[in-house]
Amino acid sequence: MLRKTNWLYLTIIGCFLITSCDSKAVYDEYKSLPSQWHKDSVASFNFKSPDTTNNYNLYVNLRNTNDYKFSNLYLIVELDYPNGKVVKDTLEYKMAAPDGELLGTGFSDVKENKLWYRGFDDSFKFNEDGDYTVKIQHAMRNNGDVNGVDNLEGITDVGFRVEQAQK
User: Fold this and answer.
1) Among candidates 77, 66, 128, 135, which has minimal Cα distance to 103?
2) pTM of the entire structure?
3) Proportion of the chain above pLDDT 70, given as a percent
4) CA dist., res. 34 & res. 41, Å (int)
5) Which of 36, 60, 131, 165 meets the CB 3.0–4.6 Å disulfide criterion with 55?
6) 30: closest CA among 43, 17, 21?
């Protein structure tokens, strides 16, 4: 029978192993949203370039609940380089299967989605050393409406992740 101190050591070692298994992540951060994501609210992520020689994959991460009522998601993602160059993209992601079931991983009503931003077709290199900023906001509209959805429900967290690409 294990003593309490042995259980404590096993728990600490288990936590260490779980957190150390994600060795590909160079940067990974989430921003929690209030109960609704306002169309003018921008999630901003600031990080230093890892290096200028290796290839990287960049991802937008999202957590959503069953309150998300759309089958897709439009995002405006802006990448600000250290020298002042700005690249702005409007991206569409599939969020639900044809039967309406939300995509993503998770066993509860919260689903986690890891969505490609850069690196899937061509490898991404941070060709400038310094501070980068990524800004993410939603650009959702109801069918037939000109104006965007003011308050998007069901998205609980927005994240950004940089991983070293597999060689």
Assistant:
1) 66
2) 0.82
3) 86
4) 10
5) 165
6) 43
